[in-house]
Design brief:
Keywords: Membrane, Transmembrane, Transmembrane helix. There is one protein chain. By secondary structure, the protein is mainly alpha-helical. It has one domain. It has one helix and no strands. The protein is elongated and about 40 Å long. It starts with a helix and ends with a helix.
């Protein structure tokens, strides 16, 4: 039980770090990655919600 809780916590931390990196980079890379980022971000979010 405890091990699963830790794994979920670290997954959430990774998710938050990736989101912070994405938000930090998006203004600079917006012309190239706007569509890709939106598609990837929404699919990542739905995968996270489904697996939570």
């Amino acid at each position: 039980m405890g091990r699963g809780k830790e794994a979920r916590g670290s997954r959430w931390l990774d998710f938050r770090l990736n989101w912070l990196v994405y938000v930090d980079l998006s203004p600079r890379l917006l012309p190239t990655y706007s569509l890709l980022g939106t598609t990837f971000g929404s699919s990542l979010l739905s995968i996270y919600i489904l697996s939570a």
